Amino acid sequence: MYRYSKYYDIKHVYSNEYLNIYYCENPGFIAADWSGILDANRAKEGCLQILEHVKKYPVTKILNNNQHVTGHYPGAIDWVGKIWFPSLFDEGVLYFAWVYSPEFYTQVGTDSIIELSSKVTIKTFFDLVTAMDWLLMQPAEV
Fold this sequence. Notes:
Elements: E1 10-15, E2 19-24, E3 29-38, H1 40-56, E4 61-72, H2 77-90, E5 95-99, H3 104-116, E6 121-125, H4 128-137
Parallel strand pairs: 3-4, 4-5, 5-6
Antiparallel strand pairs: 1-2, 2-3
């Protein structure tokens, strides 16, 4: 995402100790940059912040960067897959590029969430550049 900041006007719109959210009006996406160990409470709170920013800045695309996530507790998997992703879809999100954490068990948790999710097209990546390239190739609207 940072590689693209010289090409796009990417605004930093939210920050806490484990999540930074960015908004880019054109080409229209929200980026979430997570870090540290994510327990179920942090995951839910962060996801709700992303949802609030999708409501504030209507977009069809989200870039979800977990490269700096060092661990997680799987307590929020069902909620993220069955509640949060459908809520994102209801707000107009169609494409979700998810950059894996380097930690294996967080990758397994990510895959479990994706298995529970529907409607939003979710694709996983091991690097930010490929994820961003894929996201930017997706149509802005359907």
